[in-house]
Amino acid sequence: MAKRTKTNAKEAPAAPVERVYVPLDVAEHDSEHEEFAPLDSYERSSRAEARGEDQEEKPTIAEIFGPGGAVEKCMPEGYEHRPSQLEMAELVEAAFTEKRHLIVEAGTGTGKTLAYLIPAIRSGRTVVISTATKSLQEQLYEKDIPFLQKHFAPGLKVAVMKGRGNFLCREKVYRMADQPVLKGLDELDWFHQIRDWEKVTDTGDRAELNFLPDDSELWQRLDARRDACSGQKCPEFNKCFITAMHQRAAEANLIIVNHHLFFADLALKQDDFGSVLPEYAAVIFDEAHEIEDVASDFFGRQISNYRFDELGRDAEIAVRITKVSGAPLLKRVARMRERSRSFFEAFPAREGRFPFDRQQRAGFMEQNREAYDALVDALKSMEAEIAALPSKPEELLNIARRAMELRGELKFLFESSEGNFVYWFERRNKGVFVAATPIDVSALLRERLFEPFETIILTSATLAVGGRFDFLKQRLGLQVAAERVLPSEFDFSEQALLYIPATLPDVRDQAFPERAAQEIVRLLEISEGRAFCLFTSYSQMNDLYERVRTRVRFPVLLQGSAPRSALLEKFRNTEGAVLFATSSFWQGVDVRGEQLSCVIVDKLPFAVPSDPIVAARVKALQEDGRNAFAEYQVPEAVLALKQGFGRLIRSRTDRGVLAILDNRIQRMQYGKIFMESLPAYSTTRDIAAVERFMRKSS
């Protein structure tokens, strides 16, 4: 059985551990369905084998997923056998049995969750399931796991893990009750509710607090993030929600995480004591198309003005609660905050992400060396002041450690020039971020993920480009794997019509925005609203929104006008609604039925070439004598377009129109790769055909 290997990775951005859900008790298993418990019988046969006894013959995957099989018998009425689900389950089972990696593209409607969960359980290994988002984690635990525990594996133990920032720190609650640090009547009321909740919650998960605003500063002062944790020295260690997670996760058969937590763990691990996740033997990545970006974040380095602000705030709280003679230290903290503000104000005021290469950093340092040195000295002074205290409470030692870590990050970001990193900075609202991101994570992933483990499974609805996985394998460093693009369970030629307008100018033409607005208005009239309009940039989104909103009779929603979840809920519940949105709505959004009947995309979603990370990756490929446009930029855009179009057809009864206003998909040679990578939609350039299709749908 493969074990995780020790690495020399640096500490990653904080995204540590989370709660564990206690599995359904075996006694709650419904005996009515005992005959459909093939996984349970497999568990018994495994135990019998270990004792040298005769084994019960376990059912085949076909007997579980095939027509009339166990899954169908356990499902509610209306369930239909899905050949692609059976094939995927057989592929996953073979990957576990033959100890090999697997890449499988499985579209919406395949039923891929059960297709990988059941073979994972049958493998008898401890398996990590890594999903793209916390909402997908919850869906797995609240829908799929109870089904398996009821019908197949009543003894199954499952742990669900999120970042530490999702959980309450009991010690902070007790301390705050004795400290006058609450701001205003709202915070006072919220704190009283949190204090009452702490006494009864089993999880300590913020998700249970429906009264607390998303941007609450109070929660930031109460959560269980690593930076302010004193570990075993904390008086509440034995009652800690994080401690409970560690104790239970080690017993789980399946550990459900999100990609951010998984790669934070992989990046920070230097030895077994640095682990966030317990030991595991195999990993299944759902929504695996996001792996490169997430891994790049956690194998990189980043500082921001927010991190210095948090250090100062936490230092002041630590002085207050430890009751040390802290006047000199508080002066040092105030000086650090002042130096931090001066340093980050030196960055250009314009918003956006910008390159910060060696030459640019040298110029910045030449102009701002005094501010940089003053900030470094302020951090050193804080550390020295804490070191000079006659008694050193753990809370203040934590502050000194964090100050030293920030000095190390500053040195790396401003004084080093690692060859495989692209350096950049970003100003976003009130935040200034300075970062170094790996240009290529393939070697890291090959060394730390694909080589140490016998079975890694990558699945998503969008992994293949032109029916092949060459791009994915190259970017992730995966050399040998079984591969399969599964046939769709949907009839795209009947359910969807792809419309490419014949008369629009090139997207780079000055006349394009107005002509695109006219085309969007026509399409919305035909679809009676009920549409997503997806854009490749905020400026294009805002421009087209202003041009369209006064010309249509439908409610038009704009990304950024409300939280993402609230906008999505409003779209679902508003007749004829239209949503204008950018990248965050291109994936992970599920609106079934007639409420979403049209998806309009303005341009082929090529990444912005001036983005520092994109530019560095293009340059690296070019310097290696390769065609960066064909090998990187086009495949990235293909997968993004597949994600955007994937919002429309989510079930066998969905019907609708996909429109792309960028005629390069038919004019340019590379457009063939896009068309070959998309499902077999019916295609037209005639708006009248769109009207006929929508009339047929209504």
What does this structure look like?
It is built from 27 helices and 18 strands. The chain is α/β, with parallel strands linked by helices and 698 residues long. The chain folds into 4 domains: 1-166 and 231-299 and 441-489, P-loop containing nucleotide triphosphate hydrolases (Rossmann fold, 3-Layer(aba) Sandwich), CATH 3.40.50.300; 168-223, no CATH class; 301-438, Up-down Bundle (Four Helix Bundle (Hemerythrin (Met), subunit A)); 492-697, P-loop containing nucleotide triphosphate hydrolases (Rossmann fold), CATH 3.40.50. The strands form 3 sheets. It has a 7-stranded parallel β-sheet, sandwiched between helices. It has a 7-stranded parallel β-sheet with strand order 14-15-13-16-17-12-18, sandwiched between helices. A hairpin with a 2-residue loop joins strand 8 (421-428) and strand 9 (431-438). Helix 4 (83-98) runs parallel beside helix 5 (112-122), helix 13 packs antiparallel against helix 16 and helix 20 (512-527) crosses helix 21. It is globular. It starts with 37 loop residues before the first helix and ends with a helix. Mean pLDDT is 87; it is low at 1-38 and 40-51.
